[in-house]
Amino acid sequence: MTIAIPSLKVETRTRASSVSRLIALAVLALGLAAPFLVSRGAVQDLFFILTMLVLAQSWNLLAGYAGLISVGQQVFVGFGAYAMFGAVILFGIDPIPAILIAGVLSALLAIPTAFFTFRLYGPYFAIGTWVVAEVVRLLLAQWKTLGGGTGTSLPREAVRDMAGVGLLRDLFGMKPAQASDAITYWLALILAAATIGFIYRLLRSKQGLGLAAVRDNEQAARAVGVDARRMKAMVYLATAFMTGLAGALIYVQKARISPDAAFSVTDWTAYVIFIVVIGGIGTIEGPILGVILFFLLQNLLADYGSWYLLMLGLAGILTMLFAPRGLWGAFSDRTGIQLFPVRRTLVGGPSVHQGGSSHG
Amino acid sequence: QNAAIKLGYVSPQTGPLAAFGEADSFVIDAFLMAAKAKGLNYEIIVKDSQSNPNRAAEVAKQLIVDDEVNLMLVASTPETTNPVATTAEAEGMPCISTVAPWQPWFIGQQGNPGDPASWKPFDYAFHFFWGLEDVIAVFTNMWAQVETNKKVGGLFPNDGDGNAWGDKVVGFPPVLEKMGYSLNDPGRYQNMTDDFSAQINAFKAGQCEIITGVVIPPDFTTFWNQAKQQGFVPKVASIGKALLFPQAVEALGNAGHNLSSEVWWSPSHPFKSSLTGETSAEVAAAFTKTTGRPWTQPIGFAHALFELAVDALTRAEDPTDGDAVAAAIAATRLDTLVGPIAWDGKGLPPFAAKNIAKTPLVGGQWRLKDGGGYDLVITDNKTAPNIPTGGTMEAIA
Amino acid sequence: MTALLETKGLKAFYGDFQALFGVDITVAEGETIAIIGANGAGKTTLMRALSGVLTNAPDSVFCRGEAVGALAAPDILARGIAMVSEGRRLFPSLTVEENLMIGAYGKRRGAWTLATVYDLFPILKERRANPATALSGGQQQMVAIGRALMANPDVLLCDEISLGLAPVVVRDIYAAFPRIRESGAAIVIVEQDIGQALKVANRVYCMMEGRITLSGRPEALSRAAIHAAYFGAQSHDHS
Amino acid sequence: MSLLQLDSVSKRFGALTVADAISLTVENGEALGIIGPNGAGKSTLFNLITGTIAPDSGAIRFAGADVTRTPPMARCLSGMGRTFQIPQPFEKLTVFENLLVAGSFGARRSEADAYDHCAEILVETGLIDKANVPAGGLSLLQRKRLELARALATEPRLLLLDEIAGGLTEGECQALVATIRAIHAKGVAVIWIEHVLHALTSVVERLLVLHFGRVIGIGAPAEIMASRDVQEIYLGIEI
Amino acid sequence: MTILDTIVQGVLLGGLYALFAAGLSLVFGIMRLVNLAHGDLIVLAAFLILVLVNGLGLNPFLAVLIVMPLMFIAGYALQAVLLNRTLGKDVLPPLLVTFGLSIVLQNALLEGFSADSRRISAGALETASINLGAVTIGLMPLMAFLSAVAVIVGLNLLIYRTALGRAFRATSDDPVTAGLMGIRPRQVFAVATGLAMAVVAIAALYLGTRANFDPTAGPARLIYAFEAVIIGGLGSLWGTLAGGVILGVAQTLGAAVNPEWQILSGHLAFLAVLLIRPRGLFPRAVD
Ligand SMILES: Nc1ncnc2c1ncn2[C@@H]1O[C@H](COP(=O)(O)OP(=O)(O)OP(=O)(O)O)[C@@H](O)[C@H]1O
Ligand SMILES: Nc1ncnc2c1ncn2[C@@H]1O[C@H](COP(=O)(O)OP(=O)(O)OP(=O)(O)O)[C@@H](O)[C@H]1O
Ligand SMILES: [Mg+2]
Ligand SMILES: [Mg+2]
Predict the structure, then answer these.
(1) Chain E residues whose beta carbon lies within 8 Å of the beta carbon of residue A119
(2) pTM of structure
(3) Predicted confidence band at C87 (pLDDT cuts at 50, 70, 90)?
(4) Neighbours of D171 (CB within 10 A)
(5) Which domain holds residue C95?
(6) Closest ligand to C54 CA?
């Protein structure tokens, strides 16, 4: 017996999401024009925000959706950065293609590291990722051609003659430093948009549905045919790729690298975790909100040195205790607003009511 | 009245390197007062690197882009000076840097430090300090005062300083060999190592009577205690970095007696400030009076940094033009609190001639005072005879 | 006279799922009560509510007239109510003897000590140094009962102590009950094994879907009524 | 060739034997009922069949292939659908999405292909009104229904049901029986663990009695229910 | 016989690591709580000892006796006020809260004590040693090792011989049933963390006398402590000692080859153990 449901339809969009789609496009357009509209300082601030956003979205995908709590993501930032430096210094490749190479190499690095860390669960996994990051840091610190523990700088010409710099100079009369700022900024913008786009698409795809199932109940997910291990491995690889790209991009802009800086737990993992947790883990909106708050906090309090970090630590603790779903989570729970909805809503059909509680 | 000239200053004021930045606010306050008295209009924007190289690069960018400073000043350890100088160079911002031996500063900023043929000078980044050749000369001069078997044990970590000191080309090994010392270098260790038995065993086996290296304070404490426990007591221990600050030596208890170290500045240095006319002794005394803390070596260099800034900016045709300021820096001839400074390539290999100016270096030994605490006594001045000694080298008991 | 233990309109919830809908029972000093009912009737939930594992409205459970509904398990235990949990729940990292000793953690004194418990279940003395989980199911159940006795309770709550045990073993365990009663404790047993329950109880409550549907002295209840209550079909016309 | 074949499968948890050399054959399209006291090892048997736990010895064949060591995910893809005794919904996903996971992964379809099929099952199992409600907000009975619906969405050849009728009203129970019959009528083999005997016996062709992890009887329901052993062990009533 | 000396020094170093790890192991074993602030708490205790030694001129060994109860109280309060709220199925809250705590502690210490690197002076003991011919054993490292053994023997006696220890194990197995025995799990957890902090005070003494420390020295110690716990296996204190020794010996052996390999060898030994035995060398039977 089959029951025909002629008017059945599945919708994934809400009014808020249609609005936010427009807003996103406008923001993107405005973002692209930013180097012509705002000061260089603002462009650099935006670069910082965007790269941190990429790191935060990646960690959020890993921890918030795949349940893999890593405190060792700095391994991909540092490795990506070193791969880029290696490609530029040793092979004379232009920094921009070198960034791509770095992303790919980071994803490749994820294979052997997953081999170790995926044997571990929960807190063990977290510690395991940290140790792996230390091992990679110590190994790279032995690589004398890239400066060993001292670190090294990108050749000045590499950045100055980077693809596109000449073009910008000719077209808009930008100074090389300004032009390379603009280029790295655009790359960061594209990377951030692509990361969010990728994560959003993933979550709305069949794989995303499987991922959500694994997050909610791994045992049941396996029982209905979801390959939880593969799913997690895939996410781990994807985040390694995105994090590696971000790391390489950040260090194109910094132009100087050392193992301690590139593999800093504080800069590339602790801050990122705070951003995600304070903003709202397990949502796409959370890290966006979090990174903006983080930036404001940093600017307001940077001159207070250790007080700033102390406040950040306290804010993280308080959020975890009193609003474990973060600021966006709390907001969304109260208002039902979601800018990036992933719900599949069944509408139409004989007796479907389009009930109000369509938000989770 | 002209708009104020803006100086950006980056140093580690918090974090593990904070001892280096300890004198900053004292030096800056004194400088602003002196500048005002002279009718100069300067604004100084100070940024804390938090001892973090990432942060140092970031604040340097902010100073250049947001604050639009006219000149970048940076001090203390390659971890701080290198990211800042790299950023300034990329941005076309003139930069004066100090308190890092020149090799880790210069070579450490090259794309491929292992390939001297690829090294290039900088257009905007200038550095003044001594180099490894100086510290080698000072150390060996000190060692020559004591009867030893000329067997040296080396402690070089895998960091900016350690790699430079231990370098087979520009570091200690080639020079020591030439001078008839044999160097026992077990290899680069990581900072914050908990056990030095491998090194101690190697030094014992090699019958080393002299220990040298560039070690961070916690590691030196670990090493020195362990060495004593293992019955390894060299006649001479000349260590860079770990013995700079009196607090660090005091942390060794009585075991700090007669340890020796490089001395780049002290109250007995016979130099005067070009800005205030004060002598070294006067500046040191003022510091102790204001802060209640003993004098430290970075005071003189932080002070000199500002002397150089004023000098270059006054001479520059247009202090707001980076190229003009860079040209003025390159043409400097100034007698500062740390000695005469000129980027004239004196005592330097050709590749570094443009960007480095050297300051005099002597050697000293920490001596226990009767009432507790330590004195740093200058024990060797062959490298800079104008700086008076306060005693001669003694072997460690 | 106030009852030793009493519930008044006791309700219990698991999230938004209601498992008990106003249960009233009383337990008098020295009495043995049996609670029977089909799977999912709410018997375990009732036990958990009585023992403080689930907290309730304060005035839904009374112990000697004191409202104890909102107290946590250790406070309930301090008032002399101990429980043998469904499924035994021994501590696997403790030996048999340690499992027993931990029953005395609350330091209530009385007739039950290690010696008297070993006297009641001699086999446990032989196995005292073994990890508790290395014992057979029946022996484990003895440990669970002994552990609860070590607290010298005034009321002993037993949830399905015959669960998964062969009838012979069940008989052995029930053989201990007269001795327990002699020590003065009232006993509340939850049983699916109706035969056993009816043999030892002074009074029986039958539960169905979170409510008491039948109660009385065992000899006064018809087998048909109980059987019906047990399997859930056409039971409502009894009670 | 039989659909499912267990060959002397055993499993122990420490000292506890929960499956004791169980051999069993289920044919294509057959309906088998499993009964046994609490803790007899019924759910464990399901876990062994579906791969949630691995047997200590013995072999399991499904649809002609040896699946003794294959993971649950692969067994689902080869046609086993199961419900959990304690419902395990994906709490943050809606009811419809819960089915979509099963319908797209378990039945190897694209997501869009699974829409119609999943909506049909929602109607069939009476959950269509709750389609857009997060599963975390369902009552226990609805959760159990969701378990069934989700198992169906994987389009199984063998459906394993673990105590899904408990707590239903008579009317609901009959509706459930009708649903399961309809599924069975389409040729899906069913293994059903149930305490609600009248519901079970009105569907299954054979009944298996499990006690202490051992098969103590298998055969036509009437025959099994009449056996003395079963009456004594399962009902605990001495006749 | 340098190799013998290398191993002996590694074993002694392992004792120090085990001391760092013992408190962590206790807490980890009883409530599965991963305390990322453990290293910073060691540093905090070291500063407390320092204040007593410098301020009141106390002997450091005496100062520890005062700091131990202080740290016990701090640990008790920490668990009761903060950490108990984070326990549950989800591993994220405890990780994050202790991570936040680590940052807070480091920076509060920076504000309070500045970044200067400090040291607790133990006088002549620091450099004293016992000469056994082939090997020379430093007195302080030996005392650290013996303290580690003593702490582990003590904790094991506590855990396996006392009512409190039974309560620890029972609560760890099953908090709900433990409640039915009159045990208050939250209180038991607080006592456990208090004890762990008392052990931390002992670890702090040896940290502070062996090398300099500063407010940011914690995390570097934490990672070794964790490795020791995980190598040893969850809940096994002797395992933790073994884990510490494995780390220490791996480090000294690695350094004997080349100091570059010192720290790396420790980490690699850790990864190797994980590869062979993901649950550690002496895991608890039930978990
Ligand atoms: N932790 C829980 N969460 C949600 N529902 C629960 C929980 N525990 C029990 N229930 C439900 O509450 C109802 C009553 O369960 P309870 O365990 O009290 O029954 P019982 O009479 O003891 O049954 P049994 O004979 O199976 O032991 C059942 O429908 C059960 O499924
Ligand atoms: N993972 C496990 N570890 C240890 N023991 C277990 C485990 N799973 C089940 N058991 C035990 O195995 C026995 C059989 O359990 P199972 O769940 O199979 O029983 P069941 O027949 O389904 O009972 P019910 O009717 O209560 O559902 C029980 O004693 C149970 O406690
Ligand atoms: Mg029950
Ligand atoms: Mg079951």
Answers:
(1) 274-275, 278
(2) 0.87
(3) confident
(4) 8
(5) 5-231
(6) 1
